Amino acid sequence: MRLVVTGKTGQVATALVERGADQGVEVALVGRPELDLLVPEAGLEAIADLRPDVIVSAAAYTAVDKAEADEASAVAVNATAPGAIARLADRLGVPLIHLSTDYVFDGRKDAPYVETDQTNPLGVYGQTKLAGEKAVAAATANHAILRTAWVYSPFGNNFLKTMLRLAEQRPALGVVDDQIGNPTSALDIADAVIRVAGNLVSRPDDAQLRGIFHMAGHGDASWADLASEIFAVSATLGGPSTLVNRIGTPDYPTPAPRPANTRLSSAKLQAVHGVAMPDWRSSTRSTLARLLGKSVRATNSIHPEQTS
Ligand SMILES: NC(=O)c1ccc[n+]([C@@H]2O[C@H](COP(=O)([O-])OP(=O)(O)OC[C@H]3O[C@@H](n4cnc5c(N)ncnc54)[C@H](OP(=O)(O)O)[C@@H]3O)[C@@H](O)[C@H]2O)c1
């Protein structure tokens, strides 16, 4: 099976290369400069030329705050381009796996979100990702939209790397404690995507396997819970650690409003695709072990949800 994945340096794309190699699945990445999702039409043939069995649409405009002031780019990358990629998948007769986000919800539900829950994004990023979901669904029935959340990995910029870096610089950190979600390892996402891809290829007429699925780490946490766990584990591994001061969302104003509760139920993914997402604590520990084996460099700000 050959997966052609959009984006070259993204967390999920990089994780797919690694997990694919482990599992004998060919993974080819297509991204800038040959495919720029701001103007995707010119680069779509680069995907077709690689003769995918499944296309994985993982690239996105993920800078949540920046999107508020750059809506046109976010619309182009997160909404228009996925529609064009979905039309290509339809033309090639291959399934499309499209990554989406917990930020399609407003976070006001007092329980984990299921796939049939009403969407109501609070900011431009979530609005454009929701528009992308709709564009994909309109273009091809042969799709699986996988909504994930709070992604971290040994690659790229993410909350784990930011916390480790800041722990080396500061005696204490204020971290938001009233936003709850499911921290999710990009490596676990990659395993899930490979499994879903296999299902879509082997059962081309099974409508049950198509549609929207939530795919997030098992168990939930606030950002402060996650930070505390990171520092506790880091300390046991000989890495940096600092004090976590639990603060409220109003203490950390951001350009894009954040949903308070974006816990996702991944029960449908497990029931239909046979994928059980691992517990976030065990995946966090293994990611930290890898990160602490290398130098930790990250450039994003303290705010945990710069991307989603
Ligand atoms: N990160 C999270 O916390 C989170 C949470 C929920 C859902 N998601 C979703 O999960 C998916 C994967 O996220 P991720 O964490 O892997 O993202 P990421 O690490 O931020 O990577 C984004 C990728 O998108 C590519 N990209 C951005 N603009 C592009 C453009 N104009 N043309 C071509 N490629 C472009 C980047 O390309 P370059 O390689 O050229 O830089 C990069 O490969 C996304 O759909 C995202 O919306 C992420």
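^ NAP complex. The longest helix spans residues 71-92. Residues 253 and 303 are 10 Å apart (CA to CA).
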